[in-house]
Amino acid sequence: MTTTITPLGPGRVSRIFRQLGIDTQYVLLGFPLAVITLVLCITGFSVGLGLAVLVVGFPLLFATVFQARGFATLERARIGPVLRTHLPHPYYKRAEPGAGFWRRTFVPLTDGQSWLDLVHGVFRLIPSTIAFVFVVTWWAGALGGLTTVLWDWSIPRPPDNQDLPELLGLGSGTELRVLLHTGIGAVFALTLIPVVRGVALLEALFARALLSGVSELRERVAEAERSRDRARAQTTAAVSAEASALRRLERDIHDGPQQRLVRLAMDLGRADLQFDHDPTAARATLAEALAQTRETLEELRALSRGIAPPILVDRGLRAALTALAARSIVPVDMDLPEVGRLAANIETTAYFVVAEALTNVAKHSHASECKVTLQRSAYGMLVTIEDDGVGGASLAKGHGLTGLSDRVRAAGGELTVTSPLDAGTKLVAILPIT
Question: Mean pLDDT across the chain, nearest whole number?
């Protein structure tokens, strides 16, 4: 088994040292900020709590909470470059517009995040002090040790003072001392980046837990709820679309092939009775029954294309839409770039969108021409159908496009219709693709 070592390029080295500078300034600036925040928060909270009995303490507590909120906002901005992420601004309770003075004073005091900001202001000095000590020590050790040869001579020593190495006969004490200090500085320098990074993360993660932890948890819960709602909506839309498709298929079979098959059975029965006394009429009846059989087969093929057109499965969406446009009564202008094969449910949904739209154009729009466009974008696959008809189409319940909208939502997409009266109709379906 071989291990590949990736060399550090100039760009990566630059990013490492840039992050070292960001972490260093974050820690060095954080310590004095922590001292100031501690003094102001402790003073304001203590005095405000002590004067709460006299009522005047509540405005002071209000001012202290808002002061802690301001320091928290500053800290969130400082944390971003250290954690390489943007921390969202949390939600704070606010009094409704027009509320009185005391209402505006007490509402922020009931906000949990405001008190977490205050807790951070009081206790942030602990991680800040730890981080500050490590950063100053490591920078001083690295810089001082590596530059010993430049300043060791300037340290005054008594003329008769001899270093221990000289007394033991080990050589020049100055050379050994410089070598020892330089080695110590090298150790500090080699460990500077991980140590500074570690203590900066310690301080930053402590602040993040108090200043954005609750907000991020709420956001994750809200996103999970939104995902759940989307999944439920897609499931409901899929069930509704399937039910609509089944009802439509049942209606089409009842109104078309079923009626023809009933007539076919009657014609065959009549031909059977005619064979004995009127063979010529029987042959005519059989010829008519044969025509009915062909028409029934054509209708069944049309219905099968509505369920799962073979050309879509065999040759893809572009070929299926081209064949669909060729059968359209209204002339269709196609703009179909090569999009490759997509997921089966996406191709089927796009096909049905175009098929249903062209059917509606032929039946209701009185249009003279129609245009179908496919386009891949950052949002997904855009299927656009435009006509120059009378307009008036709608996604409202009771209109023919409702079932189509359910089918698109079941695939995770969205259907929009723009159809002003006497200005044509534009139908756009956005379907997700991977």
Answer: 77
Ordered DSSP codes for 147-200: THHHHGGGS---TT---HHHHTT-S-HHHHHHHHHHHHHHHHHHTHHHHHHHHH
Residue 191 near residue 138 (C-beta atoms within 8 A)? yes
Token pair of 251, please?
A: 């209606």
Q: What is the model's pLDDT at position 125?
A: 92
Asked if residues 30 and 132 have their Cβ atoms less than 8 Å apart, the reply is yes
Question: Distance between CA atoms of 197 and 24, rounded to whole angstroms?
Answer: 8
Which tens digits make up the pLDDT trace of 354-363? 888 888 888 8
Give the pLDDT confidence score for residue 171 in this predicted structure. Answer: 47
Angle among Cα 344, 346, 350 to the nearest 5 degrees reads 120
- Among 101, 119, 98, smallest CA distance to 62 is for 101
Separation of first and last alpha carbons in the chain: 35
Region of residue 380 (phi > 0: left; psi between -120 and 50: alpha; otherwise: beta): left
| Average of per-residue pLDDT across 259-288 | 74
Rounded to a whole number, what is the largest CA-CA distance in the chain?
Answer: 150
pLDDT band of residue 322 (cuts 50, 70, 90) is: confident
Q: Measured between alpha carbons, how far is 325 from 376 in angstroms, rounded to an integer?
A: 20
**Assigned token pair, 411:** 């695939």
**Whole-prediction pTM value?**
0.53
Among the listed residues 137, 153, 150, the one whose alpha carbon sits nearest the alpha carbon of residue 189: 137
